[in-house]
Amino acid sequence: PRAQAGLEIYARQPGSQLSAFLPVLGDVANSEGLTPGEYILTLYGDDAFGPVARRSVRAVVRKGEVTKVEMKVETGVQVTIAFTPRDVDRATVRALDASGAVVWEDQLGASSSLVLPTETVRLVARDDAGHRAEMSFSSALALRGQTLTLELK
Fold it and tell me: Which terminus of the chain is more exposed, N or C, with fewer CB under 10 A?
């Protein structure tokens, strides 16, 4: 089992730029402070093996109920994601695996460094004006240390 020290989970509602930190104790994050609604939960951080891949899951929090989700903790691939044209300051980016499932999603600034899950084979981005970009590749492992520029059109 991987050591969980240094892991962080943030929750934000879809479409919002505001996020809430969820304290992680052992392998459990507590969401008692969240109001009912849909959230995107995102895993960040480091463990004893180094930076972990960002992971996201969507969950619905309901009053009076316990919501359980599982998030895989593994080493990933460090990359930088940038957007063109240069006047794009923010976009929602999704990392998809070979089945088309979203393994991570978040809103990123114009140039952001992050650790992608190794099974990522496609990135999809969309800005607030509706411009889109896609990038496919055979293996995220081959992208280690690279800047991936997504051209939003």
Answer: N
Look at residues 100, 101, 96, 83 and name the one whose alpha carbon lies nearest to residue 148. Answer: 83
Which segment of 6-10, 38-42, 124-128, 145-149 scores lowest on mean pLDDT? 6-10
**Region of 72 on the Ramachandran plot (φ > 0 left; ψ -120 to 50 alpha; else beta):** beta
pLDDT for the residue numbered 2: 45
Residues 6+ apart with CB under 8 A from 28: none
The span from the CA of 9 to the CA of 28, in Å, is 10
Return d(Cα 105, Cα 68) in angstroms, integer. 19
CA 113, CA 69: separation in Å to the nearest integer?
26
37 in the Ramachandran plot: left (φ > 0), alpha (ψ -120 to 50) or beta? Answer: left
Radius of gyration of the chain, Cα coordinates, nearest whole angstrom: 16
What the block records as the tokens of 20 is 């809430």
